[in-house]
Specification:
binds heme C, 2 domains, Cytochrome Bc1 Complex, Chain D, domain 2
Length: 233
Amino acid sequence: MRAWAWVAVLGVGVGCGGPTPARDFGEALFKDPKLSDSQYNAFSCATCHATSAAEAEAKLYTGLSLEGAASRPNWWGGYEVRLIDAVNFCYTAFMRGTTPLEDEDPKSRALYEYLVSLSPQSTAPAQPFTLVRDITEVPRGDKTRGEEVYRAACQDCHGTRSTGDGRLTPLAPVLPEVARDYAQLFPNATPGLVFIEKVRHGRFFGVGGNMPPYSLEALSDADLGALLSYLGL
Ligand code: HEC
Ligand code: HEC
């Protein structure tokens, strides 16, 4: 049994496995930044979440893979117990959506059908999600690995290192140049530590903006250390 059906399921396609118009509409919405009503949003669900093991392997996404997500008993490390609330957190915090998606909205239903189609088993385990609350230094690592991490984790949004070419939104600053002012802006911390704080917290804990946080599951301290070496921080 699915612990939480998002909506009273329409019956179409659910459990039969095949594509349905609602599921296909849901997939299109999943990949479309215009799902959000904010003109400043450039992110789609697909910017931050893989939907298959192969995709999850190829990149370092800030969000977990959503394969099986509709069958998990809870989300966000247990903070959310309704799937629509887990999605709405992303929708309002990262995609700048002004009003949360509602159960009965046809878009919500379609998105739900799509997530169900990614969840062929009726139950799936909850996924760990460990936010790093207290920021500490990490040992620096290998620059070559750091370059790979940059490409797999940061480049889609921030663009090419030092130029920002191809970035998803002009709101994402050029890395690592943005850190040049950190010594002056934050005299009580090293620039490296300020940078770590941004990556680990995103907009959490009172930090502004729409940058998503990187949990320990999404980015290990070893990979973060390698990334910092590559960026010269
Ligand atoms: C800017 C990045 C970003 C965007 C855009 C985004 N998410 Fe997320 N999402 C996250 C992060 C980070 C988490 C917390 C880690 C995790 O649980 O995946 C999360 C968590 C979730 C979870 C809970 C997963 C779990 O098992 O804990 C679901 C479900 C989810 N997102 C669905 C969506 C959907 C659907 C959309 C589009 C409407 C979306 N997200 C857009 C970053 C994003
Ligand atoms: C989903 C898109 C997205 C991804 C992925 C992403 N960022 Fe960001 N990041 C942003 C946006 C947008 C901002 C600017 C606004 C804000 O702070 O939210 C930002 C801001 C930042 C800042 C703060 C700059 C300042 O204002 O001082 C740092 C540092 C940063 N990102 C580093 C990273 C690193 C390192 C990675 C990869 C591990 C990464 N980001 C991945 C979207 C993203």
